User: What shape does this take?
Amino acid sequence: MSETPLNLYRPNNYLDNLNSLRTLRIPKGVVLDFLEISEENTQHNTETLGILCGLQKENELHCKGLVLPKQSGDPYSCDCSDEELLLESIESQNWISLGWIHTHPKHSLFLSSVDMHTQYNYQCLLPEALALVYSPICAQKLSAFSLTQKGLSEISKCQNRGFHPHSEGLFQEASHAVYEEHLGYRIFDLRN
Assistant: This one.
């Protein structure tokens, strides 16, 4: 099985094919390590984010690592800084961005309007990109989300910034995410 960086070419109608998404395999360990890394922030009611990265392998996507960018967070959001360093770190491994993971320390499992706009950017580059959200106050604790066809359409037309209202049904659980026990991965923490 050969591993190659993903070809980012997308036909004009790729957003119409959300039902034929490739499987995205995620190491369980990368999620558990992220939760451990973010625990102190979570205890202080501060969001933490990381970028899930990896490769195309055959007709699947495999998460090979997590990059924690320089960031600043509060109870409602987390912003990445030094995007150039982040991109250099991803490219140095010949990886692509497969989505992102972030915490909701005092909120439930959902995508806020800010999250949906962020997710839109990921899904425009890669339809399989997902948002993993962790909430310690929910019984389920972790969910993988992607925007629906309706969500992609509505967010593409929205010019608002910050938190603002959107209609219902814009995101759903990402059923193409599969968690694997024995996949290797690396973590790059750029926060220091």
Q: What stands out?
A: Confidence is low (pLDDT under 50) at residues 1-16. Helices lie at 28-43, 83-92, 113-125, 149-157. The CA atoms of residues 98 and 126 lie 7 Å apart. The two ends are 36 Å apart (CA to CA).
